[in-house]
Recover the amino acids of this structure.
C-alpha cells in the first residue's frame, strides 16, 4: 500500500473494513479514519482516529518516528471518529502540543479530560513553521461542526480538509487514481448528501476560501486522497452546495396492499420522458442513506404512502424526518397514496413537504382502496408534470 503523499508526509490512519453503521449512515463499504504525519524539523500528526483504533494509529506513527519525538498534534475536527484516540495519543506522545482553534478546545474539553494536555490555540490566518514546511490554518465553521478547520501546507500545495471532500470507503488504495473515479465520486456524493447537505451555505463560503489556495492534493479524513481529480471533486461540491438539480424525478413511496405501488408505477411511467432520469424507490427496499443520496440532485419528487391508522406508514415518516433534517433545497413535488375508510396518509405527507419547504405542484393524489382507471390516468399526468418541472429546474 502506497501511503506517501509527499516526501516525508505519510498517511498513518486506519481502515475500518467492517463498520456498517455510522450514526445511522449505512456504511456499506466501510470507511477509513485518515491521519497524516509530516516529518520536518518538527514533526506534526494531523488528526487522529476513532478510539478503538488508537493503538493501530500509534503503531503506524512509531514505524516512522519515535513517539517521544512528535512535537504537534493538529485537531481539525472534534467529532469522535477523529478525536476519540486523542486521550491515548496525548498520553503516548509526551512532547506533543495539541494545535486547534478555540472552539475545538472547548469541544474537546466537553468530550475528554484535557486538563493535562498542552494546547496551542490557532485562528484563521495563523501559521506554524515546521522547518521547511508550514502549517496554515483556515477556519471552516459548520462544515460540518462549529470547530471544523482546514490545515494547509503551502510549500506542498496540500490541503488537509477533515471531513470535506471525504467518502466512507474502505480500501487498500489510498489515492483517487488507484480506483475508478465514478466509484469514488459516488461515495463522495453519498457522504455529502448524508453528512454535509444541511450546510450548503457554509460549504459555498469554504469553497471560496479554498479557491484562494493553490491546491494540488486534498487529504481528507475519510476515504481516498484527491491528487489526480481535485478539479472533479471541487466542481462536484460546487454543484451540490448550490443545490443544482439534474433533470431527475424520484417517486418515493411505501405501500400496504399495492394500491400506492400501482399509483407510484403510473407516476413513474408518466415521468419517464426523453431527457429525464426517473427512478422508483420503495422505502422498505432501500435505505435512508441511499434515499438521501438520490434526493440530493433530484429536481422533482412524488412522495407517497398508504394510509395506516389515519397516518402515513411509519417508514415514510422516518424518511421525511431524515430528509427534513438534511434540508435539501429547491425541490418540487406532491404527495400521493391510498386510503380505506379513514383518510390521512397523503395529507400528512403534504404537510411535511410544505414544511421542508418544497414547491407543491398539485393537491395530494389519492385513491380509495384501489386506483381506478381514471386515477391511473391522473397519475400518468402527474408524472408528466414532474418531468416538466425537472427539465425546467435543471435548465435553471
Ligand atoms: Fe468524520 Fe464529522 O467526522
Amino acid at each position: 500500500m502506497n501511503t506517501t503523499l509527499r516526501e516525508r508526509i505519510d498517511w498513518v490512519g486506519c481502515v475500518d473494513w467492517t463498520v456498517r453503521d455510522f450514526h445511522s449512515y449505512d456504511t456499506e463499504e466501510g470507511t477509513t479514519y485518515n491521519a497524516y504525519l509530516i516529518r520536518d524539523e518538527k514533526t506534526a500528526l494531523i488528526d487522529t482516529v476513532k478510539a478503538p483504533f488508537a493503538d493501530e494509529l500509534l503503531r503506524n506513527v512509531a514505524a516512522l518516528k519515535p513517539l517521544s519525538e512528535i512535537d504537534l498534534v493538529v485537531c481539525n475536527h472534534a467529532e469522535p471518529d477523529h478525536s476519540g484516540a486523542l486521550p491515548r495519543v496525548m498520553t503516548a506522545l509526551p512532547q506533543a502540543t495539541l494545535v486547534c482553534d478555540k472552539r475545538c478546545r472547548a469541544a474537546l474539553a466537553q468530550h475528554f479530560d484535557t486538563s493535562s494536555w498542552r494546547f496551542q490555540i490557532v485562528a484563521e490566518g495563523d501559521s506554524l513553521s515546521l522547518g521547511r514546511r508550514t502549517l496554515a490554518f483556515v477556519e471552516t465553521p459548520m462544515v460540518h461542526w462549529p470547530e471544523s478547520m482546514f490545515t494547509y501546507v503551502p510549500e506542498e500545495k496540500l490541503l488537509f480538509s477533515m471531513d470535506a471532500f471525504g467518502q466512507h470507503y474502505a480500501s487498500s488504495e489510498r489515492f483517487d487514481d488507484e480506483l475508478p473515479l465514478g466509484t469514488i465520486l459516488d461515495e463522495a456524493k453519498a457522504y455529502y448528501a448524508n453528512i454535509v447537505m444541511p450546510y450548503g451555505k457554509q460549504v459555498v463560503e469554504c469553497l471560496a476560501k479554498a479557491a484562494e489556495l493553490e491546491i494540488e492534493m486534498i487529504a481528507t479524513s475519510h476515504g481516498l486522497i484527491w491528487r489526480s481529480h481535485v478539479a472533479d471533486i471541487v466542481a462536484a461540491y460546487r454543484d451540490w452546495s448550490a443545490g443544482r438539480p439534474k433533470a431527475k424525478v424520484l417517486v418515493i413511496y411505501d405501500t400496504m396492499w399495492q394500491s400506492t405501488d400501482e399509483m407510484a408505477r403510473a407516476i413513474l411511467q408518466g415521468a419517464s420522458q426523453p431527457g429525464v432520469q426517473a427512478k422508483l424507490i420503495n422505502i422498505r427496499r432501500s435505505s435512508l442513506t441511499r434515499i438521501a443520496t438520490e434526493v440530493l440532485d433530484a429536481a422533482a419528487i412524488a412522495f407517497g404512502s398508504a394510509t395506516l391508522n389515519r397516518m402515513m406508514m411509519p417508514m415514510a415518516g422516518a424518511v421525511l424526518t431524515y430528509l427534513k433534517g438534511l434540508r435539501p433545497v429547491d425541490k418540487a413535488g406532491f404527495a400521493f397514496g391510498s386510503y380505506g375508510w379513514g383518510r390521512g396518509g397523503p395529507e400528512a405527507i403534504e404537510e411535511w413537504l410544505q414544511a421542508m419547504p418544497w414547491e407543491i405542484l398539485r393537491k395530494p393524489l389519492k385513491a380509495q382502496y384501489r386506483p381506478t382507471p381514471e386515477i391511473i390516468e391522473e397519475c400518468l399526468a402527474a408524472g408528466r408534470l414532474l418531468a416538466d418541472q425537472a427539465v425546467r429546474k435543471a435548465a435553471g
